[in-house]
């Protein structure tokens, strides 16, 4: 008579995260009486040669313990044992690579690529063609589907953002589907995103990602700008080509291991709205872990964003794309604003927007005078009362502290006297100009802090 086991390996193709190797190749045990899976440690990893993790509920007393519980005579003395690992994987296995020929094969059918179609509509083919070649953007035939939505299959037009390292090796590619009209990612009825190595069903693929755009670092000494998404990196590279724009993918990827390739460079981080503090903390951490590398964080969006834009979690690309690219690129040929270094008594410097960004991570650009509306109507200067005389009178009438003053989580004034001389000179020289509103805001914030401390 054949015995029927209560606990069996879950039938079907569904896989879970292996508790040992961390790969999504794990089959859980299922209780056929309750139809519930057992605790996450019970199961078998399909990577038998490279991992071999296996824990049977009958082998360590789990099944017996459940039976005792159901009979009411469980003594609570049972202690589980760990699963067996037949072949412990290497702690730092070599990454797998995708043949570069796959990249070349994907660099076609751009008329069917939704993301490229949107870029072309916005900027024109002559502008877009070089950046497509530079970042080696590909077109995928992949059609998205999901077991959760039977019968659904996406339209074609997906984009591949290849992750190519500094040696030209292809680590993987992120495949995403965009709306060709809005340029937004397709997230309904589910998030349309997958990976090239998964779509290609490459066996035993050892994924070790690099940042999108890493291949551009080779033989290039430019400063580096880090953003979260690939789309943002591409758009920002059009407006500010003085930087090498890389996409990290997510905050979790902003770590010392992946940033080692940036050692010795000047790196500016451009976080999306509402995550400035998280990125700022990461920048400080990375500066300690990678000596000789300068990590600074731009507060551009935090300074200028409206409440509506904050709710939309706007990124730097959403900000830049408001401006006419042709006029924006003409900035170095136009008179540049007068900038005063926060802690410097030297004469005012004449800096372009990019130079200023590199120096202080606070973007003050004359491009604020232009807006890409349908008629490209120049923005009006802010119609507000700057009250400079009142501020100057206040600061001249108090005893200035010799200690540092913290304005907010992102700004600390080391030398108040130098800060005031520079900021007051800047706002007087640029009164009413929107690009210099952060200087006025910092002066007003300092006044509030000093007034509060005196009380």
UniProtKB/TrEMBL annotation:
Residues 5-59 form the Zinc beta-ribbon finger putative domain. Residues 388-451 form the DUF6965 domain. Signal peptide: none annotated. Pfam families: DUF6371, DUF6965, Zn_ribbon_16. InterPro entries: DUF6371, DUF6965, Zinc_ribbon_put. It comes from the Bacteria. Residues 113-273 form the DUF6371 domain. This is Toprim domain-containing protein. It comes from Adhaeribacter radiodurans.
């Amino acid at each position: 008579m054949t015995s029927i086991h209560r606990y069996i390996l879950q039938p079907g193709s569904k896989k879970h995260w292996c508790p040992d190797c961390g790969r999504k190749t794990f089959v859980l045990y299922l209780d056929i009486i309750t139809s519930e899976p057992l605790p996450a440690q019970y199961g078998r990893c399909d990577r038998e040669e490279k991992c071999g993790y296996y824990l049977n509920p009958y082998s360590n007393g789990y099944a017996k313990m459940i039976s005792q519980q159901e009979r009411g005579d469980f003594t609570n003395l049972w202690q589980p044992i760990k699963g067996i690992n037949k072949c412990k994987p290497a702690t730092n296995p070599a990454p797998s690579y995708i043949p570069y020929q796959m990249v070349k094969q994907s660099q076609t059918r751009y008329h069917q690529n939704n993301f490229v179609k949107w870029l072309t509509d916005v900027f024109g083919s002559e502008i877009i063609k070089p950046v497509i070649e530079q970042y080696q953007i590909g077109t995928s035939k992949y059609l998205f589907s999901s077991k959760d939505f039977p019968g659904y299959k996406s339209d074609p037009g997906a984009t591949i953002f290849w992750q190519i390292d500094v040696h030209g090796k292809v680590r993987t590619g992120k495949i995403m589907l965009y709306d060709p009209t809005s340029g937004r990612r397709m997230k309904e009825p589910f998030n349309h995103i997958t990976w090239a190595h998964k779509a290609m069903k490459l066996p035993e693929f050892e994924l070790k990602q690099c940042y999108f755009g890493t291949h551009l670092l080779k033989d290039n000494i430019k400063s580096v700008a880090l953003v979260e998404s690939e789309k943002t990196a591409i758009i920002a590279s059009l407006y500010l080509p003085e930087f090498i724009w890389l996409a990290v993918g997510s905050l979790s990827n902003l770590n010392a291991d992946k940033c080692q390739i940036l050692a010795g460079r000047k790196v500016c981080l451009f976080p999306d709205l509402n995550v400035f503090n998280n990125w700022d903390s990461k920048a400080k951490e990375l500066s300690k872990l990678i000596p000789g590398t300068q990590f600074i964080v731009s507060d551009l969006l935090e300074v200028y964003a409206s409440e509506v834009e904050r709710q939309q979690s706007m990124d730097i690309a959403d900000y830049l794309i408001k401006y006419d690219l042709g006029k924006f690129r003409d900035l170095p040929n136009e008179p540049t604003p007068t900038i005063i270094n926060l802690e410097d008594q030297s004469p005012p410097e004449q800096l372009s927007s990019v130079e200023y960004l590199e120096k202080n991570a606070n973007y003050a650009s004359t491009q604020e005078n232009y807006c890409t509306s349908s008629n490209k109507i120049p923005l009006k200067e802010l119609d507000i009362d700057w009250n400079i005389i009142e501020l100057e009178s206040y600061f001249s009438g108090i005893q200035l502290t010799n200690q540092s003053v913290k304005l907010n989580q992102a700004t600390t004034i080391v030398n108040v006297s130098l800060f005031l001389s520079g900021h007051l000179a800047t706002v007087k020289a640029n009164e009413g100009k929107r690009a210099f509103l952060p200087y006025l805001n910092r002066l007003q914030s300092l006044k509030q802090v000093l007034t509060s401390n005196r009380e």
